[in-house]
Design goal:
2 copies of one chain form a homodimer. Chain A is mainly alpha-helical and about 210 residues long. Chain A is about 65% helix and about 0% strand. Chain A contains 10 helices and no strands. In chain A, helix 1 crosses helix 2, helix 1 crosses helix 4 and helix 5 packs antiparallel against helix 10. The longest helix of chain A is centred in the middle third of the chain and has 27 residues. The N and C termini of chain A lie far apart (about 65 Å). At the A-B interface, helix 4, helix 5, helix 8, helix 9 and helix 10 of A face helix 4, helix 5, helix 8, helix 9 and helix 10 of B. The structure holds a DNA duplex (18 and 18 nucleotides).
Chain lengths: ~210, ~210
DNA sequence: GTCTATAGATAGATAGAC
DNA sequence: GTCTATCTATCTATAGAC
């Protein structure tokens, strides 16, 4: 088999195993067995397990970055900021919750990767973060986001809400599109009604006294 | 040394290592060395590494659950739903970003834990989720959350935004209180102004054409 | 309760034949 | 490019002395 093909199979298999089993529970022997080669063959294509991890994680970021950018740009120049950010949210969610394993593998494993791997991934991650920052900054500049809103916090909270879906999303539950819709709505308008805060009537029915109920 | 003391030291050390190194990169030998005993001594106090993991993770959930519940209940019955949920957000963030290692260790490692460990933690996790659900349901019942808002999605997105802070929070940056403030504001009112959506003027200055810019 | 000693398994990685 | 064979390290866990 040609080098490029085998190399690609190793990457694809690694992404899938990293996504579903995690970095530590995926051994080189697991990958080799799944692919149908011997462990030593993997080292012809990759210098080490770390380098395999590094490339897999990098491809995951590049994939979601490309998907999000394309989704936003395909809206054309006439789109509103809300539409653009909504498209970014949707593309991000579809990518990390979809069949492609690379992006979800990155999200799930990045913080557990060896330091040298994280270091090599830092720039591609930062580039993706900057893209989101540019979306939010443009929206704030044009008044679609309140002037006194801290964009770095807002961005990290939003990305966090999206990334955490890999922990709870199930194909049997709400679809990525439904989640994206609601996330966009909350992000821009909140769960409230813009009405005056209502008093809590019997808000804590089971609690007899504050503190020490346990 | 008495059994209870050593046992507690093992748990505390494990929580710290699990938080900062991860489950897989924390060996029983690491813990023993740090504590100043031999590896075999750990097995007098814990049946296996898995059982140590299981107890550490369980304590993490119980801790944050207690902290959040106390924070909400200490507000008293006159508090609004916004105040109650804001207090829950703040307590959750303070706990997972603070000095105590148990809760952050849980958040960081739960999805990477062996299946039998996750299974044993399922109920305590579910109980904490139900508490949050009760807060949101009460708010929706009294009109503080829009009737057509799906509470399960809203809850998971909110908890996700909070939990993901362990990935990016730095003591040198924004404080947990500042993050909590902004999170509450976004959750209830969004980043927008409630105004009509504004058109994006020159929203994508660097993009010449949709698709294919790379 | 903690120790010494070690079993038994598995990990990442390399050498050299083909 | 892939193989067989193997090295070395490290891991979880146990047996039995003290």
């Amino acid at each position: 088999m040609k080098a490029g093909q085998t190399r690609q199979r190793i990457l694809d298999t690694a992404a899938a195993w990293f996504r579903h089993e995690g970095l530590a529970f995926t051994s080189m022997a697991d990958l080799a067995k799944f692919i149908g080669v011997k462990t030593s063959s993997l080292y012809y294509h990759f210098e080490s397990k770390d380098s395999l991890i590094e490339e897999t994680l990098r491809l995951g970021i590049e994939l979601v970055h490309n998907e999000v950018r394309q989704a936003v740009e395909s809206l054309g120049p006439g789109a509103t900021h809300r539409e653009r950010i909504r498209a970014a949210i949707l593309a991000h969610l579809r990518t990390i919750l979809g069949d492609n394993d690379y992006s979800s593998a990155n999200i799930i494993n990045y913080s557990h990767a060896p330091v040298n791997v994280r270091q090599k991934n830092r720039e591609v991650r930062a580039a993706y973060g900057r893209y989101w920052a540019s979306l939010l900054e443009a929206a704030q500049r044009d008044g679609a986001i309140a002037k006194d809103m801290d964009l770095s916090i807002a961005r990290m909270l939003l990305i966090g809400a999206l990334n955490w879906t890999v922990e709870w999303y199930s194909p049997k539950g709400k679809t990525p599109d439904e989640i994206a819709d609601q996330c966009s709505r909350i992000f821009f308008d909140g769960v409230g009604l813009g009405a005056a805060p209502s008093k809590a009537k019997s808000a804590a029915p089971k609690a007899k006294s504050p503190r020490g109920s346990r």
